[in-house]
Design brief:
154 residues, TIM Barrel, 2 domains
């Protein structure tokens, strides 16, 4: 879910009803009519940081409907993209990859350190982005069992 305007029902209600999820049949039609090579889907993920969240409330922990991912992947036969990948549990990420997710967008994990450090100057912000991107890359390679790539550069 992302870029919605106005109030939304609670996350659990949206997840249970699949409101806002990508419709698999519409996705098939979209892929055929546009010829896209990749398809970004909604499957329980939350696209973008949740702004103005109450400080006294627990942060929403998004999860993925893994069977929905499999269904969309099988019907569309194109690599799927997951927007809103920051904060998704490592187990869900691994399972999503095995069901058809081929690209995961994690801008929040990199943008927030930048925003938090820019007041300290450009060098501090650049360092924060580098450190955050490195941490995300190492973590994602570990998730995919590809950490040997890190050693090849030495």
């Amino acid at each position: 879910m992302g870029h919605e305007t106005g109030p939304l029902p609670p996350y659990e209600e949206l997840f249970a009803s699949k409101k806002g999820f990508t419709d698999a049949d519409e996705a098939v039609m979209f892929v055929k009519e546009t010829g896209v090579n990749w398809l970004s889907i909604a499957c329980g993920n939350i696209h973008g940081a949740i702004s103005k969240a109450a400080k006294d409330k627990a942060k929403i922990r998004a999860r993925l409907d893994l069977e929905h991912i499999r269904t969309v992947a099988e019907k569309t036969r194109v690599p799927l993209v997951l927007h809103g990948g920051t904060g998704i549990s490592p187990g869900d990420v691994r399972n999503a990859i095995s069901r058809g997710i081929a690209k995961i967008n994690i801008a929040t994990a990199i943008r927030q350190p930048y925003e938090q450090s820019i007041g300290q100057g450009a060098s501090a912000a650049a360092r924060a982005v580098y450190d955050a991107a490195t941490a995300v890359l190492v973590n994602d390679l570990k998730l995919q069992g590809s950490t040997q790539i890190l050693l090849e550069g030495e």
